[in-house]
UniProtKB/TrEMBL annotation:
PANTHER family, A to Z: BLR6921 PROTEIN, MAJOR FACILITATOR SUPERFAMILY MULTIDRUG TRANSPORTER MFSC
Species lineage: Bacteria, Bacillati, Actinomycetota, Actinomycetes, Kitasatosporales
Domain Major facilitator superfamily (MFS) profile: 14-467
UniProt entry keywords in alphabetical sequence: Antibiotic resistance, Cell membrane, Membrane, Transmembrane, Transmembrane helix, Transport
Entry membrane topology: Multi-pass membrane protein
Protein source organism: Streptomyces lavenduligriseus
Transmembrane portions of the chain: 52-68, 80-99, 139-161, 167-189, 201-220, 232-252, 273-293, 330-351, 363-386, 407-427, 439-463
Top-level taxon of the source organism: Bacteria
Signal peptide from the UniProt entry: none
Name of the featured protein: MFS transporter
Localization in the cell: Cell membrane
Length: 487
């Protein structure tokens, strides 16, 4: 054996680098939530400006994911991954150095743009590195663990850094992590994993769907503060609908469409993405409402709020590790439905939180149950969403599943935040502030449990259907724990 072959990094090192990239993306999604009051005071932000510190990232991320996935397929996934991580890291440092609201919001948008390149490229590279079978199942288990743990770790790290050194350090920490990931990916992800693809870039389709997603996410996030009857919100949602129709027409006639219809006729791609969107509709809302309840009702400090997320993160990692094994034993349908019902049970438990409660009684137990269900469901639904996809579409499939989760999350958070705010407003007439807030959170958690219960029933109907074969050479069939047994 030659010296070069002995020193070549294995797929485990590459998976670690790719998982770290996904962890960093998820970390940036939640790390600012606990620090928002300090950011608002430090930069003199208005209520609307404070909201856009969060929205700017989610808007750019959600709107550009499909484009990021397709660019990765055409230009090379490793190349796009490295460029995305570099942009992400530079934007994070710029956010920490921001001296005005405009600079901070622009930096957050640049972060989201980098994340939209990272997420689909990294998932496609994982699919390239691990062929169908148990190895891919374990790899997707790691992927699910870091995806869920990143959200919980963001709350912990955000609270600790804000309390110790101030809000700029949450961005410095993310930026430092991004540059470490950049070095690891450059060293460990093989150059020949995936070269540039063939075909043309669908510029009209990309422009139409990016603008449609931008209008949709902007309308949904604005509705949380302005209400659903606001003219700007209605106009934005109407524009999103019109642009979606334009996008469909373009895709039907373009020789190399951004989102080819064959993708939806492959395996269980459509089923997986529908269920991922429904799961995402409560996922993002969970990490929004739970820290607020801990801080605004239970009176926890930013640091203690973050520490309170550790059991959720630990159960998430455990569930992700167990997901492929459970699916192999009982089948995909039973695994997904049991996981969704487990998370629904945890959220139903959270819907009984009290205004004068405690973390140990009201949060700890439900968090563990939610973490287990969330992670197992996410791993299996990610596998469903890429099942049977041809190699040339792997980046696009990764972009699509991330888009489904992100758009589902935007819709869910907008609806649940409006619902919770309405209940809190009505309750505040006769109750104290903590009691009114708790009433809103209880309704949000209860509605989330109902959504997941309905998703489990839908999963029974959809997953058991026989998947359609791909017309291209598949790289992802069978998905781990999916096609083995679907009972």
């Amino acid at each position: 054996m030659s010296k070069s072959s002995r020193s070549a990094p294995g797929p485990g090192a590459a998976l670690a680098a790719l998982a770290a990239a996904q962890f960093t993306v998820m970390l940036a999604t939640s790390i600012v939530n606990v620090a928002l009051p300090q950011i608002r005071t430090g930069l003199g932000l208005s209520d609307n400006g404070t909201t856009w510190v969060v929205n700017a990232y989610g808007l750019a991320f959600g709107a550009l994911l499909l484009a990021g996935g397709r660019v990765a397929d055409l230009l090379g996934r490793r190349r796009v991954l490295l460029a995305g991580v570099a942009l992400f890291g530079a934007a994070s440092v710029a956010a920490g150095l921001a001296g005005s609201p405009a600079v901070l919001i622009a930096a957050r948008a640049a972060q989201g743009t980098g994340a939209a390149a990272i997420a689909p490229a990294a998932l496609a590279l994982v699919m390239d590195l691990f062929p169908p079978g148990p190895g891919r199942g374990r790899a997707l288990g790691v992927w699910g663990a870091v995806s869920g743990a990143g959200g919980a770790a963001g709350v912990l790290l955000g609270g600790a850094l804000t309390q110790a050194w101030g809000w700029p350090w949450i961005f410095y920490a993310v930026g430092t992590g991004a540059f470490v990931v950049l070095a690891a990916a450059a060293a460990f992800v093989p150059r020949r994993t995936s070269g540039p693809g063939t075909g043309e870039f669908d510029l009209p389709g990309t422009a139409a769907v990016t603008l449609a997603l931008t209008a949709l996410v902007w309308g949904l996030t604005t509705a949380r503060g302005s209400g659903w009857t606001d003219r700007a919100v209605l106009g934005s949602l109407g524009l999103a609908t019109a642009l979606t129709l334009v996008f469909v027409l373009i895709e039907l006639h373009h020789p190399h469409p951004l989102l080819p219809l064959r993708l939806f006729r492959t395996g269980r791609v459509t089923t997986g993405n529908v269920l991922v969107a429904l799961l995402g509709s409560v996922w993002i809302a969970l990490f929004f409402f739970l820290p607020l309840y801990q801080q605004q009702v239970l009176g926890s400090s930013p640091l203690m709020t973050g520490l309170g997320q550790l059991p959720l993160a630990a159960s998430n990692m455990l569930g992700s590790a167990l997901a492929p094994r459970i699916a192999h034993r009982i089948g995909a349908t039973a695994t997904v439905c049991a996981a969704l019902l487990s998370e629904a049970a945890g959220l139903l438990w959270l819907s009984d939180v009290r205004a004068h409660g405690s973390y140990a009684v009201d949060v700890l137990g439900p968090s563990v149950l939610v973490g287990l269900g969330l992670s197992i469901a996410f791993v299996q639904l990610t596998a469903l969403s890429v099942e049977g996809v041809a190699k040339e579409d792997a980046g696009l499939a990764g972009g699509l599943v991330n888009t489904s989760r992100q758009i589902g999350g935007a819709i869910g958070l907008a609806v649940l935040a409006t619902l919770a705010g309405t209940v809190t407003s009505h309750a505040s007439v006769h109750r104290t502030r903590p009691e009114a807030l708790t009433a809103g959170y209880r309704v949000a958690f209860g509605a989330s449990a109902a959504v997941l219960g309905a998703t489990a029933l839908l999963g029974v109907l959809l997953i058991r259907r026989r998947p359609r074969a791909s017309t291209s050479t598949p790289t992802t069939t069978p998905a781990p724990g999916v096609n083995v047994r679907t009972r």
